[in-house]
Design goal:
The complex is a heterodimer of chains A (297) and B (419). Chain A is an alpha/beta fold and 297 residues long. Chain A is built from eleven helices and twelve strands. In chain A, a hairpin with a 2-residue loop joins strand 11 and strand 12. Chain A: This is Phosphate import ATP-binding protein PstB.
Chain lengths: 297, 419
């Protein structure tokens, strides 16, 4: 495990971060920010962050969905985005693998980096980016193909795998997604015959089959029953050792159960971002406290 | 709805009187009767039509009707040229229309415009397609005549040499009749040469003969021969075998041609290809609009899933969207092909009213189609022709149903639940 990052940063106002592109350490990132609080001012190297989001603004047409969002998502941990509907958490998630490209009126400015790659750059290869940053949607969306073909879909797009390599990869992905035992005898049956929870785990298997570094999950359990939700949470717990997971959720118990860090969004701004236990037990911001305790939202 | 004045006293819920249940049930009942009556009447008309056609046409159906060319005697008349004409034209039309129509629909639905100008162009295309769907088909006939048959007159056509702008797969011969009344064919070097000059030693052919010595008039089975050119000063040969190959030096020739199955010319002329392309114009809007609808019906979550896995837009279309939309596209194709098969007016303009004895041999060949033949027969006064016209309608319906069966088969094979 990568050591927990103890620094916390609470951005209450947009545009408090002045330096945009020259940030190398977290300390520098918040130079000039009046509300910065650093519990243990340790220098943290860039490699420990899977995604660095600095002062990101985003618009849908004239509507500004994100206001100066700054979040550094640590590697091999689960980061949860919480907040009321329409607060911009899904928008941020969809910028991380450029799914917003499908929306003609969506645009963004600021910095969104994965290592040295500028994810907002026009010249970036979005096809390769989406291989490195997988996404699982709210509603399970298996293709109307067989279970095997669903999992093999991504590898077939990106890899020159022969038949046995492909079969191995499909089995590995389904095992990782804790679905193998349930479907191993019916790999050639239609994926749409699976239950809702199984379909969502199939979508996770499909996403990890291409070997992503980051897995984005947009409310993956909101349409599932408690048993399937538990299965997916267990799965996230297991996957965190190999993948960086970012999960958007409306379920605060879920965020507190399975995430390492939590960001609370409100009206397009990050109100508070820090270790999950602190956000849920001892939040610094009144709004956060009201939200996590269920008084508003 | 409670009236807005209830705002003044927000605690009091206004309670309008409930609607009478009996009245609603009565409306419900009458509406269902109306639906049944409408549906039944259209089916009844169809049944009556089918009965009328079958009662007239079934006795006329025979192998003769299917295999003979049209003859003045209704007993001997058949629809073979029209049958093959319809099959050729509609098959060509389907083969050309489906790829173009589906590709257009994919462009409009799956590749959104990237710029303002692009959006403007897309809007223009969409507007054109919607408008073309409502144009009377005879107008398409005139368009096809200009655009495909004569290609706006861009290629000068020399009637004397029978040549056109560009040709492939054709051999022209100057055909002479020898003094022994035998056809001598001399290949034409340059189709624009009007003068035919014969001299000894030229490459020459004649028709082959079968075992009984009868001539086989088949341009694909020519045999080489030696010609013997004489002038009026020369002695006239006596030997019939020599006479057969003897030509006077100033003999006059007629121009004949032997066209292979892949014969191609530009402009297309009044051939199968021009007819099929004109029908393509007629049904393209139908195919495009129904394909667009089918693509729109594919859940966007499937596209997002494929894009999220790193598929390129084309890979999304090929692996996810198009397979899911094929059943809907095929339904549109069935409707469009049914229209193409029955279409008469544009074909009448392209093919003209000509007497065709043979099935089309190549894409540029003259042709006729079943609806034209049926129309021709029904307009004659003799009752016997009306009966074979009814028989022709049955054959036309059979062609239509077999084309549709192919589309239905594809649709059944591809049909899967989408979510």
């Amino acid at each position: 495990m990568v050591p927990r990052i103890n620094s916390m940063n609470t951005v209450t106002k947009a545009n408090t971060v002045t330096s945009k592109n020259t940030v190398t350490t977290e300390k520098e990132a918040f130079a000039g920010s009046p509300t910065i609080q650093t519990a243990t001012p340790t220098e943290i190297s860039q490699e420990q962050f899977a995604l660095e989001i600095l002062n990101l603004d985003s618009w849908y047409g004239d509507f500004q969905a994100l206001h100066g969002v700054t979040i550094k998502i640590p590697r091999n941990q689960v980061t949860a985005f919480i907040g009321p509907s329409g607060c911009g958490k899904s928008t941020l998630l969809r910028w991380c693998n450029r799914m917003n490209d499908t929306i003609a009126i969506a645009r963004a400015s600021g910095t969104l980096r994965m290592g040295d790659t500028d994810l907002l750059s026009k010249s970036i290869d979005v096809v390769d980016l989406r291989r490195r940053v997988g996404i699982v949607f709210q509603k399970a969306n298996p293709f109307p193909k067989s279970i095997f073909d669903n999992v093999a879909f991504g590898p077939r797009l990106h890899m020159k795998a022969n038949r046995s390599e492909l079969a191995d990869l499909v089995e590995w992905s389904l095992r990782k997604a804790a679905l193998w035992d349930e479907v191993k005898d019916r790999l050639n049956k239609p994926a749409l015959g699976l239950s809702g929870g199984q379909q969502q785990r199939l979508c996770i298997a499909r996403a990890i089959a291409v070997g992503p570094e980051v897995l984005l999950m947009d409310e993956p359990c909101s349409a599932l029953d408690p048993a399937s939700t538990l299965a997916i949470e267990d799965l996230m717990d297991e996957l965190r050792t190999q993948y960086t997971i970012v999960i958007v959720t409306h379920n605060m118990q879920q965020a507190s159960r399975c995430s390492d860090k939590t960001a609370f969004f409100f009206e397009g701004k990050v109100v508070e971002y820090g270790p999950t236990d602190r956000i849920f037990t001892n939040p610094e911001n009144k709004q956060t406290e009201d939200y996590v305790s269920g008084r508003f939202g | 709805m409670p009236e807005s004045s209830s705002q003044s006293n927000s605690d009091q819920r206004s309670t309008p009187e409930l609607r009478g249940r009996a009245g609603r049930m009565l409306t419900e009942k009458w509406f269902s009767y109306l639906c049944v009556a409408t549906a039944t009447s259209s089916v009844a008309v169809l049944c009556w039509l089918l009965y009328s056609i079958l009662s007239h046409g079934l006795p006329a159906l025979s192998w003769t009707l299917l295999s003979n060319p049209p003859e003045p005697d209704p007993e001997q008349a058949g629809v073979r040229p029209a049958f093959f004409g319809t099959v050729w034209v509609c098959a060509m039309c389907g083969l050309m229309t489906l790829p173009i129509g589906i590709a257009t629909a994919i462009l409009l639905e799956e590749f959104p415009p990237k710029s303002k100008l692009g959006g403007w162009v897309y809007g223009l295309i969409q507007l054109n397609i919607s408008n073309l769907a409502g144009v009377p088909s005879v107008v398409y006939g005139i368009l096809g005549l200009t655009a495909f048959v004569s290609m706006f007159g861009l290629f000068e056509r020399d009637q004397d040499s029978q040549s056109s702008g560009f040709e492939l797969g054709v051999t022209y011969y100057n055909q002479f009749f020898s003094e022994g009344d035998r056809a001598i064919l001399i290949p034409v070097e340059n189709v624009d040469d009007k003068l035919s000059v014969v001299s000894e030693g030229m490459e020459a052919y004649t028709f082959a003969r079968d075992a009984d010595g009868a001539t086989i008039v088949d341009y694909s089975k020519l045999v080489p021969t030696e010609i013997n050119v004489i002038t009026y000063d020369d002695p006239y040969p006596e030997d019939p075998a020599v006479l057969e190959n003897t030509l006077f030096a100033d003999a006059e020739a007629g121009r004949v041609s032997q066209k292979s199955w892949y014969y191609f010319q530009v402009p297309f002329g009044r051939g199968v290809l021009a007819g099929a392309m004109t029908l393509m114009l007629v049904i393209l809007p139908v195919i495009i609009i129904s394909s667009q609808e089918a693509l729109r019906a594919v859940p966007s979550s499937l596209r997002a899933g494929a894009l999220g896995l790193g598929a390129t837009p084309w890979q999304v279309v090929r692996t996810v969207t198009l397979p899911a939309a094929i059943p809907g596209i095929m339904t549109g194709a069935i409707l469009a092909m049914s229209r193409a098969i029955g279409e008469t007016a544009p074909i009448l303009i392209i093919a003209g009213i000509v007497y065709i004895r043979n099935a089309p041999q190549h894409l540029m060949d003259d042709f006729t189609v079943m609806p034209l033949q049926i129309y021709n027969w029904t307009s004659r006064p003799q009752e016997a022709f009306h009966d074979i016209a009814a028989g022709g309608i049955i054959i036309l319906l059979a062609i239509l149903l077999s084309f549709n069966a192919i589309a239905v088969l594809i649709r059944q094979k591809m049909q899967k639940p989408l979510s």
